[in-house]
Amino acid sequence: MSTQRRQPHVLIFPFMAQGHTLPLLDLSKALLRKNIRVTIITTPSNAKLIIQHLPNSPIIHVIEIPFPSNGYGLPKGCENTSQLPSMDLHFAFLNATKQLQKPFEDVLALMSASDAGIPLCVISDFFLGWTLESCQAFGVPRLVFHGMSVLAMAISKSLCQHLPHLKPSASQNPSSLDLPGMKIPFDLAISDVPEPIRNLDLNDPACQFLCELAEADVSSWGVVVNSFEELERSHISSFESFYHNGAKAWCVGPLFLCDDDKKPGDCEKLSDCNLAKHGTSAMQWLNEQVTLASVLYVSFGTQADVADTQLDEIAFALKESGVPFIWVVRSTTWCVPKDVEEGMKSGKGLIVREWVDQRQILGHKSIGGFLSHCGWNSVLESISVGVPILAWPMIAEQPLNAKLVVTGLGAGIGVCVPREEVCDGVRELMVGERGRRARERAQALGRQARRAVKEGGSSHETLNKLIDQLCGVSDVPLKLCLRAVRYEMESEHFSMHQT
Ligand code: UDP
Known about the structure:
By secondary structure, this protein is α/β, with parallel strands linked by helices. 44% of the residues lie in helices and 12% in strands. The chain has an eight-stranded mixed β-sheet. It has a six-stranded parallel β-sheet with strand order 10-9-8-11-12-13, with helices on both faces.
């Protein structure tokens, strides 16, 4: 029997939301470049999207398991949170994903029965907490992925522990919350606390579910973090202190910069000729903008429900500011107000209603600012290319990210509706003194981010160490037999694609 060492193999199970899936696809590509075999497990309609983002490679596979079909009140065919008609259905969606445990374990069982054996580790999303139990049953380490900043995760964990007993802060601002043992670079207000934590009610099934997820989280082998040490070094140890068994937080981001093909390289911005080949209407429009850093990019991510009345306010604010803008709108019910539409005819703005390549847009030399909801991916993508943020947070941990950007990092300006305030904020960010300072800070952070993922950089080295450590945990010589695995995976319960 051959005693060839088995090729290291990592199984990745992303949560079905764009902001959670995309960074794990970037991580998959980073692992591929280190000759690690990667299998991504997901449901059929997500698989279609995922395959589009992956390179052709004989060492990356996507396994489909069926999404639970009914009984959860979800719209037919909904397999991704971006397809939810309202975030009120988020808990129903989470509940449905629990049914994926059996097919997930079937996959692990087949892998462990094959000659290639079980993977080095499973990297699964925080929301798929039940994967821990499965991993433990198969003796495979689970690494958890949250898609959040270190600071937001540490604050959330600390709040869960301390919020019921917290006394008002002794600092200058009496309404801010003091969290024991944490140095928070801004005044933490109760309104910044993510909703489920603020209203923690242990009789509520959604809260109970979150508690289960949190318990699985802290019992995991480690945490993969889409951030970099230079950005969040001072919060890492307090975050790790919430984990059992000495689990480490592995900061390997910004993951999208690990994609060599798209990396902005040493220059701050991509030139339009690099982008022209993509030829989307958004990119064509941007290429027509002659003034450097003159356009505001506007997007509120894939999750937040923004009311049409609020979209009106934003539209009028953009028009009044006189700043050119490119705006991605998700609402299917909102119509552009007539006045604003008239103004856009002179080429001052573009509203896009389909999916855009946000990273490409942010990397365009015409973009000078980002009006953002401050989802963590958006924050990283913006500062990595030196674009300052006009922060308008909405849900989840976004208020924490916004304060980190504005106060902690100095790379943005905070804003909220009504329109007058947004209008002033847009002008200040794009042409004002505070905006100039925020741009300089974002550019400095962008340089650090790009250094972090290069050979010798902090994130690059951390990923190497993570792989070394995982290989050490399960360094068993086994016959290499990839074909056999592929054959066995063709079961009636799931199907496997090679990209
Ligand atoms: N995104 C994109 N095109 C779009 C909308 C979103 O590429 O039209 C990407 C964006 O670049 C980011 C992710 O989707 O990587 C959204 O994640 P984020 O954490 O910013 O916000 P969320 O959608 O999770 O609230």
